[in-house]
Design a protein that fits this description.
It contains ten helices and seven strands.
């Protein structure tokens, strides 16, 4: 039934992004997911569904499904991540200090996290439908040394922030804190945590920083393919407990992603476009 609904939204005539570059991930578009088994499609679109069966019945699942958009919403969101002549997606500029930050007016979202948590890989996955967009990725921790700005047409901007922790830029605090505190068009910060190791001390410090600024932010659990379901669920429940008891500005739902296997990428695209006002969700969606 699930794949039937997906198929209905992707019938011939439906406008989806078409790219011809060979470097495009095989699951970049929802169109490509329709050939997979229903259970696989379900886990791609809603990764938390893979973990539900391991939860005790007494555990409240609501906080993990607050944002549960329809396939229709995901299709609409996907179109905004497709570059065209009238909707160009590109790297715009980099900055090391606030006086170098570009004066962009469109809504902005930024991604921060420990070095090697997968920020650049996640942004590359989000932009995979536009492979000409250059998002540099390195296996060496601390590769991102500047704030990198990517424009998504006139809709919104995505910012890749330097990583904290190991090999972080010496002026990380002077670079990042003023941006998070003063950037007026910043609508949401995405704080990334490695799902295979869980919250680390540096992550808790970053969380406290976000709380201090009282700007809304979201937790994103990366690399969920790097560990077993038991370890991932333990780390996820621990993170949820911290969010529930120690935060006031964090969106209650953590987002689960794997940039390698594309788990959760469609959902995160939809959330970003919703936050920036780029699409309106259907009545069945929640936020």
């Amino acid at each position: 039934m699930f794949c039937l609904r997906l198929g209905l939204w992707l019938q011939p005539g439906t406008q989806v992004c078409v790219v011809s570059r060979h470097s495009v991930h095989k699951l970049s578009s929802l169109q490509q997911a329709t050939n997979l088994p229903p259970k696989k499609v379900q886990s791609l679109l809603y990764p938390f569904s893979e973990l539900e069966g391991y939860l005790d019945r007494s555990v409240d699942r609501t906080p993990f499904q607050l944002f549960h958009p329809s396939v229709e919403d995901m299709v609409k969101a996907e179109k905004l991540f497709c570059s065209s002549q009238s909707h160009k997606i590109d790297y715009y500029s980099s900055a090391e200090r606030m006086d170098h930050v570009p004066a962009l007016r469109q809504p902005e979202v930024c991604f921060i996290g420990r070095s090697n948590v997968g920020k650049s890989s996640l942004i590359k996955a989000l932009f995979s439908l536009s492979p000409e967009v250059e998002v540099r990725i390195s296996k060496t921790p601390g590769h991102t040394k500047k704030m990198n700005f990517f424009r998504v047409g006139k809709a919104f901007t995505v910012v890749d922030m330097p990583g904290y922790g190991h090999r972080a830029p010496k002026d990380f605090v002077e670079m990042v804190e003023p941006y998070l505190y003063t950037r007026k068009n910043l609508v949401r910060t995405f704080l990334l945590v490695d799902g295979s190791v869980g919250l680390q001390k540096a992550d808790l410090i970053a969380l406290e920083m976000c709380e201090e600024f009282r700007r809304p932010y979201v937790m994103v659990v990366t690399k969920i393919d790097k560990c077993g379901s038991g370890a991932l669920l333990t780390n996820l429940l621990n993170l949820h407990d911290v969010v529930k008891t120690q935060t006031a500005s964090c969106f209650p739902q953590p987002f689960l992603v794997s940039s390698l296997h594309f788990l959760g990428i469609y959902l995160l695209r939809c959330f970003i476009t919703h936050l920036t006002g780029s699409i309106r969700l259907s009545n069945t969606s929640q936020s």
